[in-house]
Amino acid sequence: MLLQNTERGLFCSAGDFYIDPWKPVDFAVVTHAHSDHARWGSKHYLVSKIGEEIFRARLGPQANLQTLSFSESIARNGVKLSLHPAGHILGSAQIRVEFQGEVWVVSGDYKIESDNTCDAFEPIRCHTFVTESTFGLPIYKWSPQKEIFAEINEWWRDNQQKERTSVLFGYSLGKTQRLLAGLEGDIGPIFLHGAVANFIPAYQRAGVRFPAISVTKPENVRATRGKAMVIAPPSADNTPWLRKFGECSTAFASGWMQVRGTRRRRALDRGFALSDHVDWPGLMDTIKATGAEKIWATHGYTAPVVRWLRENGWDADAIKTEYEGESETEGEDLPETTEQNRED
Amino acid sequence: MQRFTKLFCELDQTTRTNEKVAVLENYFREAPPADAAWALAFLSGRTPPRVISTRNLWDWASVETGFPAWLMEECYESVGDLAEMLALLFQDSGGGTLLTLSQIVSERLLPIRELADISKRQLLVQTWRELNRPERLVWNKLITGEFRIGVSKTLVVRALANVAKVEPAIMAHRVLGKWQPTAEDFKQLLKPEGQSDFTARPYPFFLASPIEIKLKSGESIADEFGDVNDWQAEWKWDGIRAQLIHRAGETSIWSRGEEMVTDSFPELVNAGKFLSEGTVLDGEILAWRGDRPLIFGELQRRLGRKKVSDRTQRDFPIAFLAYDLLEKDGSDIRAESLEIRRTLLENVLEESAHRFASETPSEQTITQQSLALFTDETTESSNAFCLRLSPVLSVASWEELESIRSRARDEGVEGIMLKRRASSYGVGRPRGDWWKWKINPHVIDAVLIYAQRGHGRRANLYTDYTFGVWDKGELVPVAKAYSGLTDEEIRKVDHFVRKNSLEKHGPVRIVKPELVFELAFEAVLESTRHKSGIAVRFPRMNRWRHDKTPAEADTIENLRALTSSRPGLSIHELTHDT
């Protein structure tokens, strides 16, 4: 087999490299900069060109980064390697691996619907497709983001009428930028929590345009109570930092908000099912579009996805990895050194 | 249906009480009365029972969506709510319905029950296709008979009271009473206050607030409650809170769930005959033998019977322990002080007991003879007057009260009630005048051994836990608990469960025995149904013992040692239960 699942991650023995390894290796090809995929300590990294700055921020200034533009390819021991947009966050890539006529594609995390903050996903023809399945149940079917953003902006306006600050929780890398790009900046001032502000300049330098962002100086904040939109990481809920914005209405933007229970459990006012992951119909469409006969499902609802695929004629297997997908605690800084970070 | 769905979504989208009331008010003002009547019925818990069997619902949804049953079950496990799972599973086809709520009810919901399976399925599928996603959720909730949303009946009543401009108590009264979900009855519910408000309806119950103070050093109950003489202390019974109403020659019994339970207790109906016209008692229905209560389980066994025969009455004797008088000679006396109500209550019960004694001597003898085969206790209780006065505990000091409370468990009660002597009988649970002070629970340290996903707001999260204690070097399951942890702790335990599952058995995960929790519970009972030989009552998690290792958890012997102090030793259990 071209790729094998090992205790360090997916390994290509012909090319002598790992994809998204969770333990240090000599040569790591990394799909995207979320901490469960891009981990410290490897000697050499191959990442997408456009994501370079973000990878650098995640992997540290000392990391030895080699970059590759989308669709460009390199050869390693006769194995052809290329990166293709995954539509998940800025710089997220699918990894295409070709050796002696056999093609494998590793999706990393991906999303089908294109948005303004990263290159749009494109399905790649392959023999074996290694796919995420974070939302691999048919109850997860996203509404078009246009509708969701219309709801978010309407919620913001409605809060202004009730003189409440709108507080929108989202993960720091990817979700925050996507939210920001979807807000109508003329509704009111927008503030960012420090933890979600980090990656904004990198996105801007990559050419992504955002509405104006206000700085959270005390005098600004007081003047805009009841009018502003605040984007913050989920961990900022119930913290003193939020109190300075006065009376708030809270919301969370995540695919998990598709289910009312997850929102009610967090005692939030609103939940917006805006996800950077593929939904069930998207997953099935993509699998068909790749033309792959063999499917490996890595993280999320792997068991139902595999069973469904097998019942419908595919050769499918669940692969145990240490990726977390859009776990409910994602972005709340998962420990870097978990022994067994599995979600089966 | 559009308007009602909007109401549903708006209620679902806020956690603020005042906003919920405002949204409800708005709806009740603007909706046509015929729709509002049904909305009120659903919001106050009068959903028609399930109109389609679960089996059919799953089968038909499976065919309609093209997803096999096993995949729907996976989805259900993640959503934790059948109606919502089905609403999410469908492809969004329908643009929404133009039918009003009352039309949906009268043309779809009510007829569907009577239809043969083929037509039933047709109508169901047709409706699913017509509705948009939020409407489908509401519809599914209606057909599964599980219409519950995050709004209490109290809030609904408050909104209606605001619309009708009457006191919430009056509205609570009206909503409890007999009305049909029709435009006419809905208008009647909203009419201004009038005489007819009080015929055969219970009063809203006055509820006690828990005293949760764990008295720290230097703090005393006296600091909180002042002079002990201002308070009346009673036992806190472990039964069913109920009102016994005797008006217009008829006796009815309402439980606190605002349910008529008259038919379950014929002996109370009989006893009601000896009360004078226009009497309402507040008290507790208990399983009772001789002069003491039996465990709650005995009452449950009685409630499990559909038909209450003479035999049932003998085998599962009950009593009504009256502790308040709300109406005397047809007048509402709730505004009187507890002190006055108590005196009147004592008179009322004494009179009725006299009447009972003087009017039933012959009957009693016959009963006694026919019951010769049964034990003395049985005979004794079946001919006793089953309306009893809940005694006042006479205490001269808080210290004395605390010492009485400490032996509550031996008396077969849950703790103590404290009621301010000068207080009137309130509505709902306003803090200050009525308090319940439960016995300190038993506590043990146990190890988390199995976990299962929760439902509703806890779906998709491992929140239902089974705990074990040591028995000869093995952890045996002794309790299941769901409550007591913070959301943050639940998330951490969930994370642990996902990473430390040893085996999966259907929805149950066997986890690495590593986490130790302090469990609190009310009593330990012997049980033949449980592997461990014991069962605990009301277990909940007190705290996470991060400081303890599994090896330091309790043993089954520690738990067994607590069985001696079980509440209300049940004679019945010893003689009849095998």
Task: Explain this structure.
The complex is a heterodimer of chains A (344) and B (578). Chain A is 23% helix and 24% strand. Chain A is globular and about 65 Å long. In chain A, 51% of the residues are buried. In chain A, the strands form 3 sheets. Chain A has a 7-stranded mixed β-sheet, covered by helices on one side. Chain A has a 6-stranded mixed β-sheet with strand order 1-2-3-4-5-6, covered by helices on one side. Chain A has a 5-stranded parallel β-sheet with strand order 13-14-12-15-16. The longest helix of chain A is centred in the middle third of the chain and has 17 residues. With 344 residues, chain A is an alpha/beta fold. Chain A is built from 10 helices and 18 strands. The C terminus of chain A is likely disordered. Chain A has 2 domains: 203 residues, Ribonuclease Z/Hydroxyacylglutathione hydrolase-like (Metallo-beta-lactamase, Chain A, 4-Layer Sandwich); 128 residues, Rossmann fold, CATH 3.40.50.10710. Chain B has 578 residues and is of the alpha+beta class. Chain B has 3 domains: 142 residues, DNA ligase, ATP-dependent, N-terminal domain (DNA ligase i, domain 1); 230 residues, 2-Layer Sandwich (D-amino Acid Aminotransferase, Chain A, domain 1); 124 residues, Nucleic acid-binding proteins (OB fold (Dihydrolipoamide Acetyltransferase, E2P)). In chain B, 41% of the residues lie in helices and 21% in strands. Chain B contains 24 helices and 21 strands. In chain B, the strands form 4 sheets. In chain B, strands 3, 4, 5, 6, 7, 8 and 9 form a 7-stranded mixed β-sheet that branches. In chain B, strands 13, 14, 15, 16, 17, 18 and 21 form a 7-stranded antiparallel β-sheet that branches. A 5-stranded mixed β-sheet of chain B has the order 1-12-11-2-10, covered by helices on one side. In chain B, helix 3 packs across helix 12 and helix 5 packs across helix 6. The C terminus of chain B is likely disordered. Chains A and B meet through helix 8 and helix 10 of A and helix 5, helix 6 and helix 22 of B.
